[in-house]
Amino acid sequence: MISQHLIEQARGRIANHVVRTPLAISTSLSERIGAQVSLKLEHRQLTGSFKLRGATNAVLQLSQSERDRGVIAASTGNHGRALSYAARVVGSSATICMSRLVPENKVSEIRRLGATVRTVGSSQDDAQAEVERLVAEDGLSMIPPFDHPHVIAGQGTVGLEIVEEMPEVATVLVPLSGGGLAAGVAAAVKAKRPQATVIGVTMDRGAAMKASIDAGQPVQVKEYRSLADSLGGGIGLGNALTFPMCKALLDDIVLVNEREIAAGVRHAYEKEREVVEGAGAVGIAALLSAKLAHLKGPVAVILSGQNIDMTLHRKVINGLI
Ligand SMILES: *Cc1c(COP(=O)(O)O)cnc(C)c1O
């Protein structure tokens, strides 16, 4: 398991490269819940998500020769952006592999951040095969999106900031997919405040971590399209760290549906004046859905990302989704 000590070290290591995001009281959610609710505005992080913390903590621990050879991942989303940015910061280079079917706007966004994009094949599996080839042939370092000790420790710094600013925190709501954020945050929060409750929130369709915990081992789930696209994907059948950590440290996992996620994005915009992507709004969605009975305050809700297509965002705001 990733210890509090590793998370504190990560914080010092990445401090000059990431933003310490605000923890802001939400009056509208506090009134609604009847307890103080604060929002960790991590969607305002550089590159638009917390993924920068883990990626930065990982690249900073590479040796000079590893940095010279470069880093690699197969991710079209927030991890790809974060790794591209982090690599440039340490003077390394990132290669991001993706299928030829990935839309051009995602490709150009990753290029804009300075990475080399390799488009291969027609699936995420083809992209991952290309990653493995380049790791074997060219000695690039693969930085995975969640199941890696340096990545988990980096994401855990979000939790560290929450307990430091709000030592009396009773409940933390954390968006959950592969579990890097949830594992790191739960480790950090519970080390300082063991009596706090940490609840993972994810979409009801394709909830891989929930299905795996229920099954007692990592399992594969069917994937569906979701407004919370950053929560898609499995946890890996060979999962080494985030599965056991989430199993041990999360008090509960709450599932929200597409309608509830849309309501979360709308609430963030209209009441909090924040542009948040679907994955980033699941904590608000869970609070609004009243699926969390007897919630103890103060509550901290992590808004994890802002990278939503603005045409889609407008549709959600206009109630068309
Ligand atoms: C990656 C991501 C998540 C889920 O994080 P995991 O570490 O995979 O559980 C949540 N929200 C956003 C915006 C993300 O990019």
TrEMBL record:
GO terms for biological process: isoleucine biosynthetic process; L-serine catabolic process; L-threonine catabolic process. Its cofactor is pyridoxal 5'-phosphate. GO terms for molecular function: L-serine ammonia-lyase activity; pyridoxal phosphate binding; threonine deaminase activity. Residues 15-305 form the Tryptophan synthase beta chain-like PALP domain. Keywords: Lyase, Pyridoxal phosphate. PROSITE patterns: DEHYDRATASE_SER_THR. CDD domains: Thr-dehyd. InterPro entries: Ectoine_EutB, Ser/Thr_Dehydratase, Ser/Thr_deHydtase_PyrdxlP-BS, TrpB-like_PALP, TrpB-like_PALP_sf. Belongs to the serine/threonine dehydratase family. This is Hydroxyectoine utilization dehydratase EutB. It comes from Sinorhizobium glycinis. The gene is eutB.
